[in-house]
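Kindly review this record before class:
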Amino acid sequence: MLKREKDELERAKQTANVLAEALPWINSWEGKTVVVKYGGSAMEDPELRRQVVADVVLMRRVGMRIVLVHGGGKAISALMKALDLPVEFVDGLRVTTPEAMDAVQMALVGKVNQMLVSAVDQYGDLGVGISGADGRTFVTSALDDVHGRVGKVERVNTHLVESMLDDGYIPVVAGVGWGEDGSYNINADVAASELAIALHADKLIYLSDVDGLYRDFDDESSLVSSMEATEVHELVDSGTLERGMIPKVTAAAEALDAGVTHVHFLNGTFPHSLLLEVFTDAGIGTMFYKED
């Protein structure tokens, strides 16, 4: 046998081993609901985006009910700067004036959402793009007097998302909510958590461009592998979280309290991080859980 043929056979054996390892996980997750929040550099880079979307489609093809909730902070900021609008954050949340809200809708719903739907549809006609204003999926009110048109989710109507899941589609959801006085900008981390809670999801996964939760972001050795819900609350209350992590960790804690079994923070720039976390014995990133 030629060396090239031997190498190909060895790669085929490795692939077979991976599939054999994945089978019990595939069986255990068939029919389960998983909400994936997608953002950061993993969404900006075309090759990384193709890889992540392919993983999401594979999860759907093996029987999981997948909802993709996306951010788009970089696209929003870029458009706001192009429109000469000030870009400001308070406590990790974007200050959203009425003018900025127009930019949010253009960037999230008009650009990012359609980009992701198109990426999903490269693997079959599975993607359906909506915002949280469609079907009044996210019923919202103003969060406070500081952030402008940043919304607080008052209620989640799941009928539109559930009907798409029942029909075999992958809902791709932008974080824009419906309010009686117009649209609101919803932090995507919060939107994903609220939707996971309302859908009684089995798993909520945050994909970003960091490896997980660090106790000290200047110390790579401080990456947290797993954390129980009580400790998550203590961490939120401690005031030591990096500002950008406050909404994400707070949303994770609320999801666990409401019955979501596991919440994961994964690095979407790591090849096939979703598949590694869901379908193999080797966990990566940070997993939050609630003890029985």
The radius of gyration is 19 Å. DSSP finds ten helices and 14 strands in the chain. The mean pLDDT is 88.
